[in-house]
């Protein structure tokens, strides 16, 4: 059907155009009939050297597992997968009898410390007055030091259990025990997974949430091992069908025996904007191009400007009589554009649309895309 339409168009302009070996003569008034649009090749300084699959991942140092510090019953979960949370925000509440035991130990240690402090202060005074011996003062000092260690240990255990310094100080002044344990977010980020259910009993260190800071994202790229020598640290990476770019930061030192690829890592630039525009998602598999600077004279042209014939590629350069047929080499493709090399300066006007009709005319009505 496409060829028939081209033939009909060419029959309308057969009087105004004819083709030679490397030239298609067409008068300007017949451009519209052929659907030809002119444009210029755009010089570029970079070229795609590799196409490969990749996966969007969170850097390992930006991902955290939030766990329960004590055994108990989950009474409330405040966040779900996909929620954005801030550092210090309460994620869960746990009723923990074990926390009561730790609080009791802390209060007892505090009482022992106060008594040991008073005894030591008294004996220091008595030693100064010559009432007691040095040995007696040293024994009192040892008891005081041991009480300080016990008090500090019991306080640290409460901090590990999830109690804030303010809550611990309040416990020391009020002596009121509370079995309610709050679990807070260690970072600001996004909840990637909720790993527990309210109303269930959990053990100490059982995972509750997986939270990630998405300000920085990586691409894990599978490079065929025979092409790894073509890739360098710092190479630019473009994600297909997006304007998002990344930069190669690591090249693996081992080959995956299952698919004979080498892992390369690229850091995505402007991860926040990429996530906001829904262009990428963590865990998403996509295709990328590795881009490198080129010393060659390269140009970007629309894919519609290129005609294929017998395995070769051509473009049509506008001249006084019509169009000159010029052979080019396709270096790579980027969306609707192709990167080409050839005998071009960048000042030429080429047919960016209508190459199909020009090709048919050039081949004497016997060619088609």
Question: TL;DR?
Answer:
This protein has helices at 2-12, 31-34, 97-129, 134-161, 165-174, 271-276, 355-362, and strands at residues 17-19, 23-26, 37-39, 42-57, 63-67, 72-77, 84-85, 90-95, 180-184, 189-194, 201-202, 207-212, 218-224, 236-239, 245-256, 261-268, 285-302, 307-309, 312-318, 322-334, 337-342, 350-353. With 369 residues, the protein is α+β, with helices and mostly antiparallel strands. The N and C termini lie close together (12 Å).
Please give the alpha-carbon distance between the first and last residues.
12 Å
Based on CA atoms alone, the radius of gyration comes out at: 37 Å
Reported by name, the CATH topology of the largest domain is: conserved putative lor/sdh protein from methanococcus maripaludis s2 fold
- Proportion of residues in helical segments: 25-40%
- At CATH level 2, the architecture of the largest domain is Beta Barrel
Order of helices and strands: HEEHEEEEEEHHHEEEEEEEEHEEEEEEH
Structural class by helix and strand composition:
alpha+beta
Q: Main β-sheet, in a few words?
A: 6 strands, antiparallel, barrel
Strand order of the largest sheet: 4-13-16-15-14-17
Give the strand tally: 22
Question: Residue ranges: pLDDT <50 for 5 or more in a row?
Answer: 1-19
């Amino acid at each position: 059907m496409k060829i028939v339409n081209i033939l009909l168009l060419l029959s309308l302009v057969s009087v105004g155009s004819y083709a030679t070996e490397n030239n298609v003569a067409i008068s300007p008034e017949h451009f519209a009939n052929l659907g030809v649009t002119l444009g210029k090749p755009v010089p570029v300084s970079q070229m795609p050297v590799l196409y490969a699959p990749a996966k969007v991942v969170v850097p390992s140092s930006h991902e955290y597992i939030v766990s329960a510090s004590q055994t108990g019953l989950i009474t409330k979960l405040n966040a779900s997968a996909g929620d954005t949370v801030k550092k210090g925000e309460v994620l869960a509440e746990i009723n923990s009898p074990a926390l009561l035991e730790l609080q009791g130990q802390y209060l007892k240690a505090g009482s022992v410390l106060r008594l040991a402090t008073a005894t030591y202060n008294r004996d220091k005074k008595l030693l100064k007055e010559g009432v007691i011996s040095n040995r007696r003062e040293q024994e009192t000092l040892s008891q005081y030091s041991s009480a300080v260690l016990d008090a500090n240990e019991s306080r640290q255990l409460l901090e590990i259990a999830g109690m804030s310094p303010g809550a611990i100080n309040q416990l020391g002044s009020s002596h009121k025990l509370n079995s309610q344990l709050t679990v807070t977010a260690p970072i600001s980020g996004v909840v990637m997974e909720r790993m527990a259910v309210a109303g269930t009993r959990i053990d100490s260190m059982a995972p509750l949430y997986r939270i990630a800071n998405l300000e920085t994202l990586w691409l894990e790229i599978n490079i065929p091992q025979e092409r790894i020598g073509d890739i360098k640290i710092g190479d630019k990476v473009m994600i297909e069908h997006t304007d998002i770019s990344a930069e190669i930061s690591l090249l693996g030192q081992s080959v995956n025996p299952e698919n004979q690829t080498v892992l390369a890592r690229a850091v995505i630039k402007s991860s926040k904007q990429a996530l906001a525009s829904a262009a990428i998602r963590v865990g998403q598999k996509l295709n990328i191009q590795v881009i490198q600077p080129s010393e060659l004279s390269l140009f970007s042209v629309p894919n519609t400007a290129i005609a294929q014939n017998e395995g070769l590629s051509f473009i049509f350069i506008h001249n006084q009589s019509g169009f000159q047929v010029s052979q080019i080499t396709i270096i790579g493709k980027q969306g609707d554009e192709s990167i080409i090399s050839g005998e071009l300066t960048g000042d030429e006007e080429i047919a960016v649309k209508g190459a199909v009709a020009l090709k048919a005319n050039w081949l004497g009505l016997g060619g088609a895309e």
